[in-house]
Amino acid sequence: MTAVFGLSHKDGKAFARTGGHEQVVFCSDERSGLYAIIAIHSTALGPSLGGTRFYPYADENEALADVLRLSRAMSYKNALAGLDLGGGKAVIIGDPAKDKNEALLRAYGRFVQSLGGRYITACDVGTYSEDMDVVARECDYVTGRTVAHGGAGDSSILTAFGVFQGMRASAQHVYGTPSLRGRRVGIEGVGKVGAKLADHLLEDGAEVVVCDVDERAVARLRERHPQVEVVADTDALIASDIDVYAPCALGGVLDDDRVSKLEAKIVCGAANNQLAHPGVEKRLAERGVLYAPDYVVNAGGVIQVADEIEGFSMERARARAERIFDTTLKIFAIAGEEGVPPGVAADRLAERRMSEVGRLRGIWLHR
C-alpha cells in the first residue's frame, strides 16, 4: 500500500471512519513543496466549505487528525449558520513564513479544482485573502478573496460581530438582559478577531481585560482603547474577577484545572475547540458556568465568505450573522428542555438540519 508522505492510505481510511467523513484527499507536489490534506466531512447540505490552514505540524498524523476534526466542525458550523453548505477543511503542512510561494498555492488550487466543486476553500490560520487570489488563478472554488477581486476581504469583521451576538445571547440567558454594560469581560488573544470583539464590547459599555503572548497586539489595542486592562497570561485572566471569559486564541485552553479556577459565569469566544477534552463542558455546568458552543458563535466569518458565492453583500452577510443571537438562545433553550449541555444541544440541532434537509437531496430534480 503506497504511503503518502509517511502516512498510509489505510491509516487515513481508519481516521476517516471515526468521524464519518465522505472523502479525504492527500495532495503532493514536491517541486513546489506542497504537502496538503483536504477533508470533506459532509455534503448533505451542499458543497463543503472550509478554510485552508497553513501550519508547521509536527508530523503527518497530527495534520490528518487536525483536518478531520476541523472539517467535521465545519459541517456543524455551516448547518447552524443556516447555510446550504457542507463541511470541509484543508491543511498545508509547512511554515507559511518560509514555505509559502506562488507555485505552491497554485498547485494547491489545482488540487481543489480537481474535486469539481465538492470542496470550496477560504482563508484560515496561515493563509490570507491575498493567498486566495493566487489559489483562484487555478481554481473556481475559492472564497475569502480580496475586495479588489470581488471578495469579502477580512472575515474577522463578522467573526467578531457574531461572537458579540453570541455573548449578548449568553448575557440574556444568565442576566436577563442582552447588554454587556457594566460587565467585566476577559479576552484571551487580541489579534484581528479579539481586538474587534473588544471594540464591540467597549461600545456596549463593558469593561475589558485582556492577555496576549504578542505584546504588539496588546499595544495596538491600547492605542485605541487605553482603558483596557492587561494581565500577564491566560491563567491570570481565568482567575481574575471577570463575568465573561472570551477565548480568542488557540484551542484546548479550558481543561479541568482551569475550569476549577474560572471566576466567569459565561464562556463565549472565537477560538475553535476551546475545551481540552470531552467532559469539560459538564465540569463547567457543575460550576454554574454557561458555555456558548464555539462553532455556533464564531460562525460570522464563514457566513461572510460564503456570501461571496452569491456575489458579496456586507449588508446581507451582517444580517445573517446577526441571527447568531437567536440561534444561541435557541440552543440554550433546547439544552434546558432536554437536560443536556449546550454543546450537545447544538450538535443535535445541527444534525437534525443535516438529516432533514439532506434527505431532500434524494428527491430527483430535472435540471
From TrEMBL:
<dbReference type="GO" id="GO:0000166">
    <property type="term" value="F:nucleotide binding"/>
</dbReference>
<feature type="binding site">
    <location>
        <begin position="189"/>
        <end position="194"/>
    </location>
    <ligand>
        <name>NAD(+)</name>
    </ligand>
</feature>
<dbReference type="InterPro" id="IPR006096">
    <property type="entry name" value="Glu/Leu/Phe/Val/Trp_DH_C"/>
</dbReference>
<dbReference type="InterPro" id="IPR006095">
    <property type="entry name" value="Glu/Leu/Phe/Val/Trp_DH"/>
</dbReference>
<feature type="domain" description="Glutamate/phenylalanine/leucine/valine/L-tryptophan dehydrogenase C-terminal">
    <location>
        <begin position="153"/>
        <end position="362"/>
    </location>
</feature>
<dbReference type="InterPro" id="IPR033524">
    <property type="entry name" value="Glu/Leu/Phe/Val_DH_AS"/>
</dbReference>
<dbReference type="InterPro" id="IPR016211">
    <property type="entry name" value="Glu/Phe/Leu/Val/Trp_DH_bac/arc"/>
</dbReference>
<feature type="active site" description="Proton donor/acceptor">
    <location>
        <position position="89"/>
    </location>
</feature>
<keyword id="KW-0560">Oxidoreductase</keyword>
<dbReference type="InterPro" id="IPR036291">
    <property type="entry name" value="NAD(P)-bd_dom_sf"/>
</dbReference>
<dbReference type="GO" id="GO:0016639">
    <property type="term" value="F:oxidoreductase activity, acting on the CH-NH2 group of donors, NAD or NADP as acceptor"/>
</dbReference>
<dbReference type="Pfam" id="PF00208">
    <property type="entry name" value="ELFV_dehydrog"/>
</dbReference>
<keyword id="KW-0547">Nucleotide-binding</keyword>
<protein>
    <submittedName>
        <fullName>Valine dehydrogenase (NAD+)</fullName>
    </submittedName>
</protein>
<dbReference type="InterPro" id="IPR046346">
    <property type="entry name" value="Aminoacid_DH-like_N_sf"/>
</dbReference>
<dbReference type="Pfam" id="PF02812">
    <property type="entry name" value="ELFV_dehydrog_N"/>
</dbReference>
<dbReference type="InterPro" id="IPR006097">
    <property type="entry name" value="Glu/Leu/Phe/Val/Trp_DH_dimer"/>
</dbReference>
<comment type="similarity">
    <text>Belongs to the Glu/Leu/Phe/Val dehydrogenases family.</text>
</comment>
<dbReference type="GO" id="GO:0006520">
    <property type="term" value="P:amino acid metabolic process"/>
</dbReference>
<keyword id="KW-0520">NAD</keyword>
